[in-house]
Predict the structure.
Amino acid sequence: MSPLLSFRDVSFGYDGPEIFQSVSFDLEPGSCTALIGPNGAGKTTLLRLAAGTLRCTSGSIVLNNEPLHSLALKKVARTVALIPQQLDVPFQFTVREVVEQGRTPHLGFLRGPMKEDREAVDRALELADVGELQQRVFNELSGGERQRVKIALGLAQQPKLLLLDEPTQNLDIGRQVELIDLLHFLRDEGITIFASIHELQLVEGNFSSAMLLSPDMPLMKGSPEEILKPSLLEKAFNCPPRRHPMLLERIQRHAKRAG
Amino acid sequence: MPEEPPRVDRPSRGKASFGALILLLAVVLVLVVLSSLAIGAVRIPPRAILSALFGDHPLTDVQRIILLQIRLPRVLASAIVGTALAVSGLMFQGLFRNPMADPYVIGASGGAVLGACIGIFFFSQFSLFGFSATALLAFTGSVITMVIVYFLARSKGRTNVVTLLLAGFAVSTMLGYSSYFFEVLNINSGPGQAILLSWLHGVIGIPRWTQLAVTGALLLSSIILAIPLMRRLNTLALGDEYAHQLGLRVEYTRVGIILTGSLLTAAAVSLGGLISFAGLIVPHVARLLLGPDHTRLLPVTALSGAIFLVFADMLARTVLAPTEIPVGILMAVLGGPFFLYLLRKTKRSYSL
């Protein structure tokens, strides 16, 4: 099966020095991939490149066997949805009005939303389990509710690939689990998931593969088990091995297995 | 007891109730126009006005002249100015994602006045379709000002509200008052000065019918241009980057909004001069009542803007009769406090 999205030797820098160089990877359709790495490694940038909001300085990004930058803006938006960390909405837009904007890539120059668009919005609200919130004002929602509404907005685009920028940030453990369940549900619906994530303990068991992006190392891709090796994390995050409970636990587990 | 999350009550959003609202506003507009036609130094009964419309001739000659040559043009001009200001206010507020933007605040009106002045004093002979160079230069002035303010207020895809308000204030003051140079330079040109003064004070005079026709056509075409932009304003509310990611051509859309908003500002300025705050208050109140969906706000602001300004001009003519207050000055006096209230109310959410 050909990959849904591939990065081939992609380099990128905002005006100044390059944030990363020669990054290559493939996302298989139906996969659920976690992107981990220290702050400032360029996780958000990588997701924005994948969504076509930024253009790489060299290399190429291929979506469905076609170079991303040669595709029409709307066509990309019908295939890829990026859920940003922050969404500032001015005025008192309701949840439904916000989610309706996800239909933009499906509308014509003059053609406004029709019945099929309203149905797609209904479905997106239902999938993200925010149907009950649809008349609430977006700015008055809690963090967990907002996260789900942002996902509904992305789902209204009816994408094949859902990119999420730290979807679990600022969520309590109960809401984190709910969010992971939602991602699994979407994966089962046939949507490919690619999410940056800081909560490393959520990666194993929940994602089919993982990627590690760190400034001083080439991009690593593998199973969560391979990527979450204590030696690798220690180096990538520049974290003393016994100073973090998760690393400590993993070192002990490895030792037990070895002994 | 756990506290309920705060909710904003809004009238039901059904199609029927929205249609009823539009109908109601249309009826109110007709009533305000009729009473504005009736009230003045010479009273003309509304019933007589209505039957005159249907071909009867119950009016005296004096009443006819007052009605057709004085009041009707003025009332129509007020309606055009009100609609143009309110709709351009709606568009600028949406573009800047801020309820405090309006053509006066961000300086578009100032630019239009400066452009119009250049037209009056230097190209007074020039005329196109019965219109002087004034309208054309007013449009150019407001577009240029908008572009300047827009780029001053934006950095890295965001609009800085403080910069926007300060830049708009500075540009608007600078342009508005630089018109006084024309006064000094053209001591001998009497009519130009009178027009300038009435412009700076925001007087809706008694326009010629050709002027009304051209401005009316300008208004109509800009509103037609505005219709497809409303849905895009909703998308732009999510921010430029998000709108781009949703497949919206952000740059083109912004240019369309700025041009259409400036066209509307020029239409308003060419009839009424500098009228502050009308473009601020009307869309804001409509948004409070109906929510921020621009596609619904467009017809409501267009009608309410006309109602608001026809009513305000009626007040301006009658409150201190026989003396007339320029409607622009009335607006500044009444609108200023409203603006301050808005500034106080929104300062938290816009971290001013």
